[in-house]
Design brief:
The complex is a heterodimer of chains A (314) and B (297). Chain A is mainly α and 314 residues long. Chain A is built from 14 helices and four strands. The longest helix of chain B has 20 residues. Classes of the chains: A mainly alpha (314), B alpha/beta (297).
Chain lengths: 314, 297
């Protein structure tokens, strides 16, 4: 078991990173916001942590917290500006944000040099990105020590979403998603709750970005562009957003599937794509659809909820 | 639902106080079309006011404007002495205005209980952080919300359906859930858009009892309804709209005889049947069954 973990550490790391990203977009989707900005916030988190580590030698724990704060401070005004948009319009605006972050990362040094007057200053390092020195991670309980913070982070995000789902705020966010106008007439300040979901989602994505830096080591700006934004959305769409475990399943499947299909060699992309298409066609609400599985699993569990008998008596 | 005759008298006595709702020269235009034109009326505190008129008269627009979903083009809305003209709907709700929708708008994926608990939102003081950490105030308020919601669910006779997804309910039950949800915010003024549509005669009668018992509790009601029998039975005053204008206002019995009202409903005719004799063609919308009206006649 321990050997298996150590041998597959990099796959485990990527599953965890993608699961956390999937959870970060779940919150906005559960509020009815089609935001693709999380790739940009992941970049903000990764760059913040990498710059703090490379320039100032700050520890991961501190740079993680700073990354969350920076992401929150960026997400708040940006959210205020774009959250009046809906659906694809919001998607386009948030993609624009991803692009802006990318351009800033590529040209950050030019800006810094102009401001400081120091022409040799190299912080962002343009298209090459930031490369952190390699430190062989120690093994703790069978996993690299850099994996543990990520694992704890994923558990913490899942716990937050699980509590949120059962809380008043979770119901309010669902209400905003299901019928914004009706929610407003119940006294819910819709913009405020959208902003809450957006800022929390952004911070979650920035947290993954920060915690991923010691693992990926090379903070390459090309990792945080359009394709990443689409990948994150795919985790949530494949897994479904009816429940917070949807993006976990979706991200795990989408990360492991290409690995599992390695034996197909050059044909694996085709099979990979087919599997995703088929699952979307037959489970449009996602792999984790309580309505679909509930009807199949419940008879075996012998445990049922209130509804069916009530439907009969009603 | 206690609608004893004595409470009725108390309800009518209360109507002499300052108005709960003042609609002052209200105008709303959509492009060149005036959905509401210079409409003014008061709804006295503690009364039930009926809002009637042919289809397309502007009744729903009026409720949308009052509840803040649609800003007025001109005019003023005062609720309980507070000017809420043009304020967003959540601010109007905080001023004590609850409402239901003609085309029911429940949160379909949530259970009946959850729907009603969302309605309790304005009473909540705990912050999202307190909720996430499960601090005492958040837990206490969660419990309170549950009790209030269950109380309302019971009052509306929905207790067996508390755990059911709202989207799976019958039309009449959905209407009642919507009323329970609106009541959860403890409104001073409740706007009901065709609450009896789709209800059978017995359900309509018990709805009438409920609305009167709400008035006894101090809720002021503005009710859009096509079921004239219900309007005549429960309303203290009736306002009649036609083509966006107010054409009559007064006690139900007087309204029923008002020649302008009869004309608005039926066009000019020698005969003057009462407005409840099929006042308008059946609604084209299949979602809004008029079962209640048919059985009531």
């Amino acid at each position: 078991m321990l050997e298996f973990l150590a041998n597959n550490a990099s796959i485990i790391n990527f599953v965890l990173i993608n699961v956390a990203l999937g959870l970060s977009i779940y919150l906005t989707l559960a509020t009815g916001l089609l935001s693709l900005a999380n790739a940009g916030f992941m970049a903000i988190g990764a760059y913040t942590a990498a710059i703090l580590a490379s320039q100032l030698g700050v520890s991961l724990a501190v740079s993680f917290v700073v990354a969350l704060v920076v992401a929150g401070l960026v997400a708040f005004p940006f959210g205020l500006a774009v959250l009046r948009l809906r659906d694809v319009y919001l998607a386009i605006a948030t993609l624009g944000f991803v692009q802006i972050v990318n351009v800033l990362a590529l040209n950050g040094d030019k800006v810094l040099r102009a401001v400081t007057g120091n022409q040799t200053l190299t912080v962002f390092n343009g298209a090459e990105g930031i490369t952190l020195p390699y430190v062989a991670p120690g093994i703790v309980f069978g996993l690299p020590e850099t994996t543990w913070p990520l694992l704890l982070y994923v558990v913490a995000l899942a716990a937050i979403l699980a509590v949120l789902r059962r809380s008043h705020e979770g119901r309010v966010l669902a209400a905003v998603r299901l019928d914004e106008s009706a929610a407003g007439t119940l006294g819910i300040d819709v913009v405020r709750y959208k902003l809450l979901a957006f800022v929390l989602g952004a911070m979650m994505a920035a947290g993954v970005g920060a915690l991923s830096t010691p693992i990926i080591r090379v903070i390459d700006p090309r990792n945080y562009v359009f394709s990443r934004a689409v990948d994150i959305l795919a985790y949530a769409v494949l897994g479904g957003v009816a429940h917070w475990s949807g993006p976990i399943v979706g991200a795990t499947v989408l990360t492991l599937l290409p690995e599992a299909l390695r034996f197909l060699q050059e044909r694996r992309d085709v099979v990979n794509g087919l599997i995703i298409m088929i699952s979307i066609i037959f489970l449009p609400r996602g792999l984790v659809d309580p309505r679909f599985w509930g009807g199949r699993v419940r008879p075996w569990l012998g445990r049922r909820q209130l509804e069916p008998e009530n439907k009969v008596t009603a | 639902m206690s609608a004893a005759p004595s409470t009725d008298a108390a309800g009518r006595a209360a109507t002499t106080r300052a108005p709960m709702l003042v609609v002052d020269r209200l105008t709303r235009r959509f492009g060149g079309l005036a959905a509401l034109e210079d409409v003014s009326f008061d709804v006295p505190t503690g009364s039930i006011c009926g809002l009637i008129g042919p289809n397309g008269a502007g009744k729903t627009t009026l409720i949308n404007v009052v509840s803040g979903l649609v800003p007025p083009t001109d005019g003023r809305i005062v609720v309980g002495g507070r000017d809420v003209t043009g304020r967003p709907s959540h601010v109007v709700a905080a001023a004590g205005v609850g409402r239901t929708f003609q085309n029911i708008r429940l949160f379909n994926d949530l259970s009946v209980l959850e729907n009603v608990m969302v309605g309790w939102h304005l009473r909540r003081r705990a912050t999202p952080i307190e909720s996430l950490l499960g601090l005492p105030r958040a837990r206490r308020e969660e419990q309170q919300a549950r009790e209030v919601a269950l109380g309302l669910i019971r009052r509306l006779g929905l207790e067996r359906l508390a755990g059911t997804e709202a989207g799976a309910l019958s039309y009449g039950d959905q209407r009642r859930v919507e009323i329970a949800r609106a009541l959860a915010l403890r409104p001073k003024l409740l706007l009901l858009d065709e609450p009896a549509a789709g209800l059978n005669a017995a359900e309509t009668a018990s709805l009438g009892d409920l609305l009167r018992s709400l008035r006894t509790d101090g809720v002021t009601l503005l009710v859009i309804e096509h079921d004239m029998e219900l309007i005549m039975r429960i309303c203290d005053t009736v306002v009649v709209l036609s083509f966006g204008r107010k054409i009559a206002e007064g006690e139900p019995a007087a309204i029923q005889r008002d020649p302008r009202v009869v004309e608005a409903y039926l066009g000019e005719e020698e005969e003057a049947p009462t407005p409840d004799a099929r006042p308008h063609p059946p609604s084209p919308s299949p979602a809004c069954g008029r079962g209640g009206e048919e059985t009531a006649q």
